[in-house]
Amino acid sequence: MLFSDNSAVSCVLNVVLCGAAGFGFYKIGPSEHPYAFTACVFGFCHGLFGLASGLTGDDNAKKIAETTTSIMEIIPLPLVNVELYLAAESNNIALGHGLFIVPLAVSVILTFFKGESGDESEGGPLDTLKTLTILGNITSLAYLAINESSWNLGGMAILAFMAKFGAKFFEEQISEGSGEPVNYLSWSGFYFLTAMAVSGEK
Fold it and tell me: Are 40 and 25 in contact (CB under 8 A)?
């Protein structure tokens, strides 16, 4: 057998994520919607690196996949929020979402070069900042969903919540290894709905 059942499941999940992000490429124009398009690029790259890691088992591919996992936690959701709030002509709120990305992106880059640090541990200052940023972005997306009466935006808020907190709950409370499918399927659904919402289908 070429790879284990877990690797096979991981590869399938990565293919699904690449497909959903690829659908985003198809529906979202890079010139009209650069922030949402960039979010789709991150999702596609994460799926691609995860697929390479699962198929080859290469240590470098695994390290890159772990880094893109950290990026997925903090960058796509604020980018999509920037796009949505710009479309709603709320430029100040869009700028706020954009500024949230900077310190967290820098921390991911530093972690990649320096390795694990104490601040990265669960409950550490960086983890708390990540959690608050994610919750703030989810709340903002839910507010916009209610304001715009959009089922797509509401679904995106729920899926973003599931990608972070639902996956963690499944991993810790249901069974070990169940968090990854929840995370990947949530992100895949998020990208599909992002493509629909940004292209104007509510």
Answer: yes
Planar angle of CA 13, 17, 19, nearest 5 degrees: 115
| Structural domains for the chain | 5-198 (1.20.1070)
Q: Round to whole Å and give the CA distance between 157 and 15.
A: 23
Burial of residue 69 (CB within 10 Å: 0-12, 13-18, 19+) is middle
Cα–Cα dist 17/189, whole Å: 9
Provide the token pair at 123.
Answer: 């409950």
What is the sign of the dihedral through the CA atoms of 73, 76, 79 and 83? Answer: negative
Which amino acid makes up residue 83?
A: E
Do 76 and 42 meet the contact criterion of CB atoms below 8 Å apart? yes
Residues 70, 144, 41, 3, CA torsion sign: positive
**Closest-CA residue to 79 (of 108, 110, 43, 50):** 43
For residue range 51-103, list pLDDT tens digits in order.
888 888 778 878 888 888 888 888 888 888 888 888 877 656 656 656 666 66
